Amino acid sequence: MDANALAQRLSLLGVAGYAFFFLLRPSPEGLALSLGLALGGAGLAYRERPFPVPLFLGLFLLILALQLWRGEPLFFLLGGGLGLGLPYLAWRLRRPAR
């Protein structure tokens, strides 16, 4: 799978999860996981090389600081790790050998 498409799908999944956990089944852990997934998936853009998107990485760091201040960063970091890590892994596995 294309890393850029995977990152976009994970971001959309995070937005859908945020709406679900906000409107239908309120859960602070689910909101944090979904928000981390959405911002993590949008944090890097993939062309020949992944490059950071400053707006989304800045929002990610701001919300991470707020989560650390509250003392509950686990679910946000888990979502962010999945959002950043899975597309990067897909990019590393599919890039041409040099």
TrEMBL record:
Determine the domain of life of the protein's source: Bacteria
Q: Which UniProt keyword terms apply here?
A: Membrane, Transmembrane, Transmembrane helix
- Residue spans crossing the bilayer: 53-69, 75-93
- Name it: Uncharacterized protein
